[in-house]
């Protein structure tokens, strides 16, 4: 795994990732993983703060938890989809509430590039992120899993 992360680190230099999740333990673990893999990581426990940050920083990809307080991942995805400044940023939605059988519906509702389970293997997650960034699949475009 160390070799894989080293290769990812070289490939992902300076790619910006926004992560939005109200589970602070999960958010911190994911932030460490992505930072150690060479990404420039910005994490938010509330979608409102993420929307404000988009006025100053343009990420290469956004990872959003669907079930959050204040503003849901569905609402955030909708805001990203209709905003001309953010509609081309690839979006990955993360969920522990929906099964893989529902991913096509969830992606369609969110206009997400990908939908993943929060329990995804770290190496697989890194591959999904790298693949999604390299394809530049915009919000609103459906990429098969």
Q: Strand portion, in percent? A: 15-25%
Question: Over all CA atoms, what is the radius of gyration?
Answer: 14 Å
Using the coordinates above, name the CATH class. Alpha Beta
Q: Tell me the overall shape.
A: globular
In whole angstroms, the N-to-C terminal distance is 23 Å
**Oligomeric composition of the shown chains:** single chain
- Main sheet properties: 5 strands, parallel
Instruction: Compute the number of strand runs.
Output: 5
Number of helices: 6
Strand order of the largest sheet: 2-1-3-4-5
Number of domains: 1
At the fold tier of CATH, the topology name is Rossmann fold
Mean pLDDT: 79
Please state the second-level CATH architecture: 3-Layer(aba) Sandwich
- Low-confidence runs: 1-9, 137-145
CATH superfamily: Response regulator
Tell me roughly what share of residues is in helical segments. Answer: 40-55%
Structural class: alpha/beta
- SSE string: HEHEHEHEHEH
Q: Helix and strand layout, with pairings?
A:
Blueprint: H1 2-11, E1 16-20, H2 24-36, E2 40-44, H3 47-53, E3 61-65, H4 73-82, E4 91-95, H5 103-110, E5 114-117, H6 122-135
Parallel strand pairs: 1-2, 1-3, 3-4, 4-5
Descriptors:
Rossmann fold, 5 strands, five-stranded parallel β-sheet, alpha/beta, globular, 145 residues, 17% strand, single chain, disordered C terminus
């Amino acid at each position: 795994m160390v070799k894989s992360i080293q290769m990812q680190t070289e490939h992902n230099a300076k790619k910006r990732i926004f992560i939005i999740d109200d589970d602070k333990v999960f958010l911190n673990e994911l932030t460490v993983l992505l930072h150690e893999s060479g990404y420039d990581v910005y994490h938010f426990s509330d979608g409102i703060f993420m929307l404000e940050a988009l006025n100053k920083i343009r990420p290469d990809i956004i990872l959003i938890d669907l079930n959050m307080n204040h503003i849901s991942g569905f609402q955030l995805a909708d805001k990203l989809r209709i905003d001309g400044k953010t509609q081309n940023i690839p979006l990955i939605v993360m969920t522990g509430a929906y099964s893989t059988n529902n991913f096509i519906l969830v992606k369609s509702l969110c206009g997400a590039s990908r939908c993943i389970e929060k329990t995804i293997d770290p190496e697989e997650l890194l591959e999904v992120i790298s693949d999604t960034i390299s394809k530049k699949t915009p919000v609103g475009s459906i990429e098969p899993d």
